[in-house]
Amino acid sequence: MRSRIVTLFAILCAAVSLPSPIAAEPTVLVESVPRWNVGDSWRFRVEKKLDRTVTQGAGILHITMRVQKVESTMTYTVTGTTMVEGDDCYVVSVRGVNKITGAYNVTQIQGDASRGEFVQKAEIEGTECRRVGDLAFVKADLKSRGSIQLSGMLGGIATPYESRETTIADPPARLLKFPLVEGDKWRVASTLTTNSSGTSSGSAVTTFNYDCEVLGRRTTTLENGESYESVAISQKGTQTIQLQDSGINIEDIDGVLFFAPSIGNRVRDDAEGELLLEFIEGSRPASTPADEQIEPAPDASVTH
Question: Could you give phi then psi for residue 179, rounded to 5 degrees?
Fold first, then answer.
């Protein structure tokens, strides 16, 4: 009996003395936040399919507009820095064109309904602020000037319009968490309040609530044939939009953001496997810091 106890004790001691498994070191893909400089510029194109409904009652009329697609080409240029609520922020000039298409339906209390399609085209210019510490979106002040063309029963000449929109994020919307470490996860939870004035005044509240995860390195090839070493970050959750005097639209978010350290910005966003945003061209006059580089991604390419 004694010998058996001694033997068991020895086995237990041997098991305890075995080295513990060593956890794999996390792979750091991007060490630090890219440093933007005055003159840095990025041009993007956006193409997004939507199913967003806006309804309003105006006296004897009930108007429903269904937004189906948004297309835009926008240029963002760093012009300086400023302080916003105690945070250092980049001031970024925004200029571009925007096109929104969809369908409308106008119902009168007494009378027939009128329906058709609409096209809204606009030139956009203004500024936005991005927090230096993590490139989070802080606020934007944009002006739009364009026209709305109706077809169908209310078709006619294009109606001009002008508007100014001020958007503030609370807290700032942080889409990226540096350093970017493979497998790292975080939640984006931010409320964007937009107030507009001009031809069409009103307000909108957009709430982001989704989870992000760093998937790893990718080689992302754009439609123009250029390839970039990037870091893929998944985004899954919801986006809720509530317009003044209108209903609430809840949209699912299920996409991937591709961040390229070589340009200090994203190069592509996919939504449910389809293109949402793509980098066209850019310029970074100042030298790019070495810590913004990553090694190529063998056997992990994404080509579109």
Answer: -65, 155
Helix (H) or strand (E) holding 120: strand 114-131
Which tokens sit at 197? 């004035």
All residues at 6 or more sequence positions from 162 whose CB lies less than 8 Å from its CB, including other chains: 143, 144, 145, 198, 199
Are 161 and 200 contacting, i.e. CB atoms less than 8 angstroms apart?
A: yes
Q: How far is C-alpha 199 from the geometric centre of its chain's CA atoms?
A: 27
pTM value?
Answer: 0.82
The pLDDT value recorded for residue 12 is: 35
The neighbour count for residue 232, using CB atoms within 10 Å, is: 22
What residue type is 89 in one-letter code?
A: C
Give the integer Cα–Cα distance in Å for 198 and 162.
6
Answer whether the bond into residue 172 is a cis peptide, omega within 30°: no
- Whether residue 68 is predicted with pLDDT greater than 70 in this model: the reply is yes
57-66, 91-100, 144-153: which has the minimum mean pLDDT? 57-66
Q: Is 215 exposed, middle or buried (0-12, 13-18, 19+ CB in 10 A)?
A: middle
What DSSP state is assigned to residue 226? Answer: -
Q: What distance in Å separates the CA atoms of residue 269 and residue 259, rounded to the nearest whole number?
A: 9
Q: Measure the CA–CA gap between 192 and 175, rounded to whole angstroms.
A: 14
Q: And the tokens for 17?
A: 């003395």
Rounded percentage of the chain residues whose pLDDT exceeds 70: 80
For the record, the structure tokens of 250 come out as: 């809840």
Q: Could you tell me the pLDDT band of residue 20, with boundaries at 50, 70 and 90?
A: very low
- pLDDT confidence of residue 154: 72
Please report, in angstroms and rounded to a whole number, the separation of the first and last CA atoms in the chain.
Answer: 72
The structural domains of the chain, with segments of one domain joined by +, span: 25-303
